[in-house]
Amino acid sequence: MSDPLSVIARLPGVPEAVEEARQAVDRLYRHRVLRRASPAVSAESSLRGARASAALEGADVPLDVLRRDEAHDPVVQGALRASAESGRLGATWRRAPRQVLARLHTVAATGLADQAVLGRPRADDTAPDPYGLGPAPGAKEAAARVDALVELLSTPTKAPALVLAAVVHAELAVVRPFGTADGVVARAAERLTLVEYGLDPKSLAAVEVGHLELPYAEGLRAYLTGTGDGVGQWVRQCASAVTLGVREATAVCEALQRG
């Protein structure tokens, strides 16, 4: 059986970047605060991740506004709902990923799209281009790409979870299968993959914060080339996002330790 993810995992610089991210996660998990406050760190990471995901869509709201529940922008609200919903969808992700994607879109796109299309693949051959990637694949091709992604998620692989998560993220972001809130769905799916496939089972690393700090659209454009160099660049960028997300979570741990 072919294992395309293993091929990606061996691209130049990818093994080293993935290993660096894994070691960063391992160090985070040894932090003494996590013995008693792991749920609190996960909740704070989720909040910061949702804020960063919305910011990548152009809706940048300060954390203190989110804490006071004063952010009424539908993009921000959708990112918050998707982040919260991810925590309830873990058990379903491996078994029924299409169902999870539909649910993530339903919560992320409420207030942005008509209720009738929430959770449904787009029927239009065009889709918004928030990251300057160029035209989206037509509806038929987008559906076929999602089918292939669903199959990939259920096919055994020797590739690290981070490689799978990077491909899940990029495919959803560039294919734009729903036509609204696709970026929010893509980032939620990436984090869900990192959790459910074993890299970050407690959902501590705020990987979305890492993506906000990096040249996000540039990385997706590199992936779109389909070349080994381009795909490798994107996976290395995702590994860097995890490492930066660990740094964010470590800062949360240190703050809790100081009281």
UniProtKB/TrEMBL annotation:
UniProt-recorded name of the protein: Fido domain-containing protein
Domain Fido per the UniProt entry, residue ranges: 96-237
Matching InterPro entries: Fido, Fido-like_dom_sf
Organism: Nonomuraea muscovyensis
